[in-house]
Specification:
Blueprint lengths: L7 H16 L2 H12 L3 E3 L5 H17 L20 E3 L5 E2 L5 H11 L4 E6 L1 E2 L2 H6 L4 E5 L2 H8 L8 E3 L23 E4 L30 H15 L4 E4 L2 H9 L3 E5 L5 H8 L7 E5 L9 H110 L15 H27 L8 H7 L1
Parallel strand pairs: 1-2, 2-4, 3-5, 4-6, 6-7, 8-9, 9-10, 10-11
Helix pairs in contact: 3-7, 3-8, 10-11
Length: 463
């Protein structure tokens, strides 16, 4: 029989058996319903077309179990509440030192005591990470290598399960039926990312899986549209050569003969041994080309260095960033609750003080203008006092002389003329009253704002 011949009905039956195994997985069914009953959030795995294939199978699985879970945006931190469990879609995104996105994103949720269910995935490393949160998590491995590595941990032994990749859970009726009357040629679908074991890709390589990439698998319809388009391309070829797990699965689903090659870690060989070896149209070929393959020692040394850097980032750098963010948040709280109200109060007090200063400046200016007038008053007071003292002194002396002599006052023309002492005293008092009246009028004029030139002649005559 032709080695390139594919018995489509046989392959469909083999895929159906794997799907039935997933649907009958009691442990998976129990965990899903427990998390669903607690109103868990579902995070679909963002990534390339292979992740879209996983998510399509996950959506079909949910429908078959009567679980109504819609994918939400994992970057929306407002939904990462400790009391809300999280179901994370299956993937190959748990490669320590290479793919650390989910480990970083979920850490705050786990640190706060949140629950996590990870659907069938491959786990390369991260054992110490999961051990910290063993009581809060349940992990499903999609092959026995990951399962055995996690089972070696005493604290994780009861927190793990084994189930085929959920891409095998796709309902055969979900994808539209496509007929390819003339399949021919080979298509190279080798990966070009960090999981590639090749120093260079084969000539004519097309990494179709990367034509779709990112967080686009949150809706079933988006998964179907992308996968249908990829099928339209891949299904025209008779043979597919690839080191991508889900390009292997998709190509076999649509009737291609698949030669699957290894990547830079155990994922492909492990999934092949657990599930894919039961698919007759898939052949595991190991290394693609020894000459273009990265050496084992070089690959392991690079991986070890990446793991060390990733652990340093995860165990020190990221916690330090979180600590600084918390510190900033605390400072912001102090700023909002104490500093800004105090600052506003200070500004209000400052405005009041500025108004008071303006008033005081106006009063000071007023008093400065009045000070010149007051100075004049002081000078006039001194002048009046001297005049009064001189006048009283001269009159008293004259009075004494007249009293002693009991005679008329001196012939001095400047002295007032009176015949009796009591008249002289009366005259003296009248002059004192006149002087005091002029002084009062001058003071009253100054404080009532009258012109200093008013009654100038009279003032001069008084002086």
């Amino acid at each position: 029989m032709n080695d390139l011949y594919v018995d489509a009905s046989e392959v469909s039956f083999q895929f159906a058996q794997i799907r039935a195994e997933i649907l009958k997985n009691e442990q998976l069914n129990n965990e899903l319903h427990e998390y669903f009953s607690k109103e868990a959030r579902f995070f679909s795995s963002g990534g390339n077309l292979g992740d879209g294939l996983i998510q399509l199978g996950t959506f079909d699985l949910f429908e078959s179990k009567g679980i109504d879970l819609r994918a939400v945006d994992p970057n929306n931190h407002s939904i990462l509440l400790p009391e809300t469990p999280i179901i994370l879609g299956g993937s190959g995104a748990w490669v320590e030192g290479v793919w650390e996105y989910w480990a970083r994103l979920l850490r705050p949720h786990l640190e706060a005591g949140g629950k996590l269910l990870v659907l069938p995935s491959s786990f390369n490393g991260f054992v110490d990470y999961f051990e910290r949160y063993a009581d809060q998590i349940f992990l499903f491995a999609r092959e026995e290598v990951s399962f055995s590595a996690l089972a070696k941990s005493r604290v994780l032994r009861d927190r793990i399960g084994l189930c085929p990749d959920l891409a095998f859970a796709i309902n055969p009726d979900t994808l539209p039926k496509q007929k390819f009357l003339a399949r021919s040629g080979e298509l190279n679908l080798f990966r070009t990312d960090a999981e590639s074991a090749l120093k260079r890709t084969p000539l004519g390589n097309c990494d179709v899986a990367l034509l779709w990439n990112g967080g686009i698998w949150s809706e079933k319809v988006s998964c179907i549209e992308a996968i249908t388009a990829a099928c339209d391309l891949i299904g025209r070829f008779q043979v597919v050569n690839t080191d991508r797990l889900h390009m292997t699965v998709l190509s076999a689903m649509i009737g291609c003969k698949v030669n699957m090659y290894s990547g830079n870690y155990f994922k492909l060989s492990a999934v092949y041994d657990y599930t894919l070896k039961s698919i007759s149209s898939i052949k595991y070929c190991g290394l693609y080309d020894l000459e273009s393959q990265i050496s084992f020692d070089e690959n392991e040394a690079m991986r070890e260095e990446l793991i060390n850097l990733a652990r340093l980032r995860r165990d020190w750098y990221e916690p330090e960033i979180v600590r600084l963010q918390n510190l900033i948040a605390e400072y912001d709280k102090i700023k909002n609750e104490w500093f800004e109200p105090k600052l506003n109060q200070f500004h209000n007090n400052l405005e009041m003080a500025q108004r008071e200063i303006s008033i005081l400046r106006a009063e000071l200016s007023y008093f400065k203008r009045k000070s010149r007038t007051i100075s004049e008053i002081e000078q006039e007071c001194q002048y009046f006092t001297r005049r009064l003292e001189h006048f009283l002194g001269s009159q008293i002396s004259l009075l004494r002389v007249n009293i002693d002599k009991k005679d008329h006052i001196s012939e001095d023309e400047s002295a007032p003329k009176c015949e009796h002492a009591d008249q002289l005293v009366h005259l003296m008092c009248e002059q004192v009253r006149s002087i005091c009246q002029r002084f009062y009028e001058d003071v009253n004029r100054i404080w009532t704002g009258s012109s200093p030139n008013d009654n100038n002649d009279e003032n001069c005559e008084g002086r």
